[in-house]
Amino acid sequence: MHMMVARQEQWVKPMAVAGANQYTFHLEATDNPGALIKDIRENGMKVGLAIKPGTTVEHLAPWANQIDMALVMTVEPGFGGQKFMEDMMPKVQWLRTQFPSLDIEVDGGVGPDTIHKCAEAGANMIVSGSAIMKSADPRSVINLLRNVCSEAAQKRCLDR
Ligand SMILES: O=C(CO)[C@@H](O)[C@H](O)COP(=O)(O)O
To answer: Which keywords does this chain's UniProt record carry (predicted)?
Structure first.
């Protein structure tokens, strides 16, 4: 679950009870990330930590060893169909270099035209809305996104 809500703390238990296995919250919307991470873990879920485009990756870094996934937003949160922000890729690259085994997700404007940049930067989890939903062949778009990411991940392993 990617929680783009106020008062993220109050939805941890209800989401766990509903069957969520990962709870992704926004760094900008909590005063106490450490307590929220602890609560998510105690409720048996994996932890995702999201940052908006205006938040630097240095703000996320102190928490990176305590989370399962970092989500780098590649549009301003709000709605689908926005333009991919390529200038977020250095954040992904930096996280991939510093935390090689961390799951890194990108969300916003990701599709066949932008996936290569995301995968090469090091993203291994992809959120894609319009590119899939507006395609005449959603299955092939999903396969392409998946293949580009797994090929980039394999290449990273070989290069190590
Ligand atoms: O929730 C958001 C943005 O607020 C994203 O999840 C987008 O909705 C993804 O859609 P596309 O940008 O791929 O159309």
So the answer is: Carbohydrate metabolism, Cobalt, Iron, Isomerase, Manganese, Metal-binding, Zinc
